[in-house]
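so the lab meeting is tmrw and i was supposed to have these ready like two days ago... anyway. pasting both below. for each one the top line is the aa sequence and the line under it is the structure tokens. i havent really looked at them closely yet so no promises
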Amino acid sequence: MNDPVSEPVSSENAEPPAIPHRRLAPGKLVVASHNPGKVREIAALLGRHGIEPISAAALGLPEPEETGTTFAANAELKARAAADLSGMVALADDSGLCVEALRGDPGIFSARWAGESKDFAHAMRLVHERVLEQPEGAGRDAHFICALSLCWPDGHIETFEGRVDGTLVWPPRGDQGFGYDPMFQRIGDDQTFGEIDPDLKHSISHRADAFAKLVAAVL
């Protein structure tokens, strides 16, 4: 019996070959952020791997305008800018709070809701007020997203995304975190990200989820 003839695979439908991951060597790395809380959290996650994080602020690097329409796009443009200006490997994070009742807002505009003064107490009140304006039963489901982009000076870039789901609480509780942490409670927890020990948060957050993927790929 003759073997069946297999259909040729169309080159139009074939998936492009995967780009191999590049290993990240121990040493100095620029964290493309001027947010002290974010830099501390990233440093805590990287330190155990022999990486020496240096903030963009410490190097006097400017913050580029975030013109992307997704977390990944903004993380990539920040990482590219920092790697180009410093001549070093750069890591950029773009993250934010996405509220289901607000159709994903504040999302990529999470920092902008805090204004130029980075007043996240104001930003949390704004989120709370907007949720109250929604129809009854809209709920308080929310999630944090984090996109991490690692860029080398030659332009090679890799991006990893993490997520954690939870619910909003009011009033905010705790002073351990930063940003919207005091009003976000992870599913299954009875404390907000602003109340839990920072070491615990570093192991369960959206940033930790993205870092786990980065570490598995490049370290």
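ok protien two:
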Amino acid sequence: MKLKLSLSLCCLALTLNACSTSSTGRNQVILFSSSELDTMGTQSFEQMKKKEKISDNRKINQFVQCVANAITKNVPKSAHKGAWEVVVFDSEQVNAFALPGGKIGVYTGILKVTENQDQLAAIIGHEVGHVIEHHSNERLSSQKVSQTTMVIAGAAMQSQGVKNQNLYMSGLGLGLQFGVLMPYGRTHESEADIVGQELMARSGFKPKASIKLWQNMAALSNKEAQPEFMSTHPSNERRINDLSNHLVVSSKLYNAANNPHCRKPKI
């Protein structure tokens, strides 16, 4: 009982002054400043540019930049105030990302899955959604709290002479991994899906394209995919259902007059 009380009080002390709320109304724990995250994001992006091959295909770059420009015009200033840097990486990876500090990376492999400007907007909108909702900060903050909890638990057990400490610590570690960190990742992904769908709609892209995108992604998925509870991402089926249900909201935000008419080149 004393051990549980000590852990609860320590975790409470860590999080009491770090509470925030996402745009969807979800409670957040934010322990790092925006400037710290911007610096981390910029440093990571610079490393990526040195490590990965950058595409010199003019038409592909123009297409990606066109979609990204339309999206970032509607990003709240609370997420990033300045210009966004967009880089296309020449890689078969089916991936894209956005980092604090106004950085967007798109791999050419994702363009084979995204059939048009609207589906690419769904991808970029989703990735920027992570930045808008400060998910990187949350992720780092949750890891810090978990690490601190493990340290405190070990010290408390040692001071109280608890036997089989390694067994208890292993159990606590697994509990944090599957009970906190992984679900935290799934929550972030689901939230970024919804925020991204609204963002693309405001930017003149058809929100329904986000559903078709994940149908395309599902077609690529491994049939032997691990259970959702052991993954940091929701299942494709869940994402499609959530996005379909949210069309009631995002369709009202869609402004066809903002359509940037970005033409996808032949890949």
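from a quick look at the 2nd one: Helices lie at 2-15, 34-51, 58-72, 117-132, 135-159, 165-202, 209-220, 236-253. The chain has a mean pLDDT of 81. will dig more after coffe
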